[in-house]
Amino acid sequence: MSSIFDLPKLVFPLFHRIYRYYVGTGWIVVNGRRVGQRIVRVTNRLTLESTLFNELRAKRRMEGRGTKVDVGECGFCRAEETTAEDVFGRVRGRHCVTASNSAKYDVLHGLVIFNEHDPFVWEEEKIRDFFEVSLEWIEKARREDERARYPFFMWNCLWRAGASVVHGHAHVLLSREPYSTKELYDAVRERYERDFGSDYFDDVFEIHKRLGLGFELFEVRTMLHLTPVKEKEVVMISNDLMDLPEALSVILRWYGEIGVESFNLAVFMPPLDKEDVCIARLVDRGRLDVATCDIGGMELLARTSVVSSDPFKLAEKLRDSLDLGT
Fold it and tell me: Residue 70 needs a FRET pair 20 to 30 A away by CA distance; which of 17, 144, 168, 267 works?
């Protein structure tokens, strides 16, 4: 089985077009003896996403706080009675209903509140319904502001991922301007097409595929990310939002199998007047019983993530789970 530390033996010319890396050893002295720990840093030359890998960080002592998910009834269990609605009303699906966020991120910001309390949902039928309802909400929101054309979907599962309410819910937004990650992707793709004559995301997927980190999952290009923002990040590229639910269902079920308890999902969609790919990013946010925050100064201020999960080992686990082979 390959690991991120085998990268020097695995890279090829296309890799170097988009990524750079270095491998080193950090030393400590324990009882008068020098002990080394291997470090790999991978940086995307174009987006400047950068990740430091050190498998020993997974073995750090963590202080627990003994918390657990409340499975009782809450206000969101009676969403239509306890939440505000948008000026254009609610959108109702088979497994969810919309509400207007009472403390908005942006001007057009709604909630997709799941019918069931448990926030860790992985069933394809339910995810498909969340997306269908979100698309209908986006259509209605567009009528309120014709200049708003950039849709965005985000699902924060539990407090480790930033959710203020345990009950399952997601966010849907429509903005006049793309959010920063989407704007960066667009600028990088435009420059990459001009410089190399190919699509940036096509080549990123090709690199991951050749390294054994990328594969097709129900026509959705799926990657264990070389520069994960945090632990166990999966990046998915689809031609349409509604192509995602089946593949996303599989990945979320696998997340549950490997012990993920809390996650963030973001889906960057094309502007409403343009056909283009959707980019989904899914990341583990850590154990619920650990008080230590997984995001620190390196991520927030240095914009370089520090992770312990090896994408090569994760890819092997996922292939085994899906019986994909090599």
Answer: 267
pLDDT at position 233 over 70: yes
Contacts of 184 (CB under 8 A, 6+ apart): 47
pLDDT at 175 over 90: yes
CATH number at residue 155: 3.30.428.10
Q: Please give the pLDDT value at position 57.
A: 61
Q: Do the domain assignments include residue 23? A: no
Q: Is the pLDDT of residue 61 over 70?
A: no
What is the torsion angle, in degrees rounded to the nearest 10, for the CA atoms of residue 100, residue 102, residue 108 and residue 109? -70
66 has pLDDT over 50: no
**Overall domain count for the chain:** 1
Encode pLDDT of 98-151 as tens digits: 999 988 999 999 999 999 999 999 999 999 999 999 999 999 999 999 999 999
The stretch 202-209 carries a mean pLDDT of 98
Q: Quick check: 141 and 88 in contact, CB under 8 A?
A: yes
Amino acid at 269: M
* CA pair distance 151, 267, nearest whole angstrom: 9
Q: Is residue 64 part of a domain?
A: no
- Per the structure, the complete domain to which residue 157 belongs is given by 75-174
* pLDDT above 50 for 64: no
User: Is the distance from CB of 80 to CB of 117 less than 8 angstroms?
Assistant: no
Sign of CA dihedral 176, 129, 277, 312: positive
Residue 320 in tokens = 């085994």
